[in-house]
Amino acid sequence: MSDARHHVIIGSGVAGNQAAETLRARDPDSRITMVTVSRLPFFNRYDLPRVFRGERDWRRFVIYPAEYYRRNRIALRRATKVVAVDSINQTLTLQHKETIHFDTLLVASGARSYLPEELSEYRPLLLGFGAFHEAVQVAETLPKRGHVIMLGGDTIGLDLARTLIELRHRVTLLADDYTFWPHEVSEADRPRYIAALRNMGFEVIEAKERGSLAAVSQGAPGLPARRLVFKDGSELHGDVVMPFFGNVPILDFMIGSGVDIERGLLVRPDLRTTHENIYAAGDNCQIWTDSVRRYCFYHGWKNVRAMGELAARNITGANEAWTPQHDESLRLTADGKILSPFWEYQ
Amino acid sequence: MNTDVQIAIVGSAGDGTIAAGDILRRAMAEIGYRVISFDLYPAEIRGFGKCIARLRVSDEQAYSLKQKSDILVSLDDSHAIPHVGEAREWGAVIYETNSVNPLPEGAHLSAHIDPGQVPYNVPIRELAEKSTGAARSRNIVVVGYIIGLMRLPLEPALRALTGKFKGKGEIAQKNEAALRAGYEEGLRWFRLDDIEFGPPPAQERGAHLEMINGNAAIVRGALDAGIDTFFGYPITPATSIMERLASEMPKRGARLVQTEDEIAAISATLGAGFAGARAATATSGPGLSLMAEMLGFGVIAEVPSVVFVSQRGGPSTGMPTKHEQSDLNMAVFGGHGDAPRIVIAPTNVEGCYRCAGRAFEMAEAYQTPVIVLLDLYLSNRYETVPFPDRPPFEADTNRYADTRGGAAGFQRYVLTADGVSPRSTPGQPGGMHVATGLEHNELGRPNDQPDMHLAQSRKRHEKLKAALRHPGFEPAKRFGDTGAVDVGLVAWGSSFGECLEAMYLAQEEGIRCAALKVLMISPFPVEMATSFLADCKEVLVPEVNYQGQFAGILQMQVPRAVTRMTRIPCAPMRVEEILDEIRRLAGRVVEPQAA
Ligand SMILES: Cc1cc2nc3c(=O)[nH]c(=O)nc-3n(C[C@H](O)[C@H](O)[C@H](O)COP(=O)(O)OP(=O)(O)OC[C@H]3O[C@@H](n4cnc5c(N)ncnc54)[C@H](O)[C@@H]3O)c2cc1C
What we know:
The structure holds two protein chains of two kinds. Helices cover 19% and strands 26% of the residues of chain A. By secondary structure, chain A is of the alpha/beta class. Chain B has helices spanning 17-31, 77-80, 124-132, 138-149, 155-164, 169-188, 214-224, 239-248, 262-274, 285-301, 328-333, 349-366, 376-380, 450-465, 495-508, 526-535, 549-557, 575-585; strands at residues 4-12, 34-40, 50-58, 69-74, 87-96, 118-122, 207-213, 229-232, 255-258, 279-283, 305-311, 342-344, 369-375, 382-388, 476-480, 485-492, 513-518, 520-522, 536-543, 563-566. Chain B has an eight-stranded mixed beta sheet. The complex binds flavin-adenine dinucleotide (FAD). The site of flavin-adenine dinucleotide has 32 residues of chain A, from helix 1, helix 4 and helix 6.
């Protein structure tokens, strides 16, 4: 192995890739290794609804060709899970028991969708939407003009629903506290936003009106594939049931690393963790925000990308502080639709 | 082709790499695909050397393996890591996701996968342990996984497995469980590669497909031609010819004797041939050297006999487990005196079958030893062969003399227009004669007069020419573009497959290109070669020996400049290298090869 500094990045999402690009530009002689559970090279997850428009070839989603990684000498370790980080010896251990030494580490492991405890027993009957293969599975399962039942909502689910409705699918939303996650909508404003969703073509059921969900089961022969039973005894039938309850950071491998964690990895405004050579960026970190005097999550791909870039700059000698990229509030348009700043893809 | 998928499995001796490849190729053949497959294993019988099973599955019979594999499987990362680059862009790399022991950085295969390749990290060991209680069936899990992943039917693999472990009750059951576990796992995985298995081709009428290697095809050809006797002495890579015949011949009332050495083997073969039996022996280069003297006897005494020779690396003991085509001169010229014989060299496994059968016909028809020249690659490589439902060989091509009422003095070596003298066999009334190694007259009596020596020499040479028109046998065949071409390849033996592949690739690049397959090397198909060479601006002769032995023979027969491409990589020649040479000769720029 050469004497060049070894920058290791955990995660190949927006944050990780932006960081790699910046690291290569600012530290041309370094070694860069990006370790990721994903088997696919990087793609923008907001593109996933395209699978419903018939695009099933993952190669058309990928942002950088293989040649990009070769040319930039970014060792891309796909299908590789980090299970532990040792901040003292500056090593990380991979699931297959390989140890990698790092000089600097950027943790950009993102977040996974959250499933409330009470729904976990129904997991086999629910379809996720975080990964490419999950998106394809939904698209292949859903019949033409099929009926999708969304539990919760959140801005990822609502965005997907916009595409589904446009494609003439029926979308029933079981609205609850997560419906507008991560936006905060007051109780007073909520009816206007729910009305906007109906205006956009959603069928909305406020979960609490039916006494919340009692069970999910397989539909009877001849009926749609899924049957939902509510505590008030009423039923709802759909072809696909998808949960959207926001995200939780993926940090299991950081437990015991000696780096401080609350819900996310706690980082200073320069994105450094409590270890001087370990940084974090993306959906998995909480950044100290002086104005509110607490560690905050910042959402959306624009923020995440900026975090990746900032972390890489600071790893390579800059000393800059985080500033959010956009106002995170949910808006209502003149024609009575909701619009999230996270839905701006350019 | 709709289907053209190459699978390479890399492991260590003891991992069951070759067995996995064998089950896969049998399964693929049963599904109806065409397969060509060649395994690489260490020379050492024990130890942890590298083993590679490679199989190419297609809907038309391919004649060589591809440079790049579509699926690469690691059963042992230390051996597989140097081969990861063999998987093509968007091809699949299948490997063990869990390691038993801690690994330093870079020791796991995943560290070496290119961003363009698709990783399939499979808990192979865990699946084997869960399904069978032990890790030994990892190789079978992999077979099941590939079949599941590619959404192919499982039953053919189950049958191949049953065949392999017949009579081994518990082992067979465990392996079936492992196969199913791998299959289920494969079905679960989301495919990211772009590998496609199209529908298998329709079966040819009047033939049935079988998965068989070169030596086995030789055996099949010999049996279908009605071989009566075989004498042999074991030697790699020819041994399995004798082994297979040993189990088959007695069932048909035929005889096989393992002799004390090769000299005895050829002597006995000639004795049997003299007696009218269809007789053969099999050997490799070192054995052929020992047989040289008696082959000369076969030539002068005009005794029908067949010698199967599978070449390996030489000279002397050389490299018994490595591929080479360096016994050509020995086969064509080996021995003293003017001793012409027929030498035919099949280029693929189907050719082994046909050449074996035709060799017996030719030996009888032209009363001469016939050498069928194979090599290690061809002997050991598997292909799907469409065997005709009825053997296409003549049971008896002898020209017997009518000796009834004949007076004393049967003219065994009578000079005839075509050089072939009607023969008799021992015990035939009126057919008694002396077969001798001495130059003789028409009666077979010793004679060293110049006129008789000239007449008999001419007879022995001229009679062989008819072999170039032997029914059912094409001594040479042209492929590729017709008319004038920029580059013409002339090739023989197993190298022809790589040449053909390179030629097709060159054609795809717009190079006008053709290839001449030369099956009969002695006597040489001069007319065909001359007209082919006349069409070629440049001539390339690739072969796996140092001297360019075939190019030498070609130039002796058809004087003209050719480019000799000789390589001795101890393995088949690389298609890519031949292609580069074609490009160079065609005036195309060739990027320098990475070291
Ligand atoms: C379906 C969908 C639609 C979305 N739409 C929008 C949108 O419209 N607008 C918007 O702003 N945002 C959207 N988002 C959110 C946005 O995609 C995320 O904010 C962003 O992807 C987060 O980037 P990241 O780099 O932090 O993490 P991720 O993109 O989640 O990447 C995390 C990486 O870490 C890897 N990883 C995790 N654990 C390990 C481990 N133990 N070992 C090794 N690697 C590990 C993962 O494999 C992955 O490569 C959407 C998300 C989803 C799922």
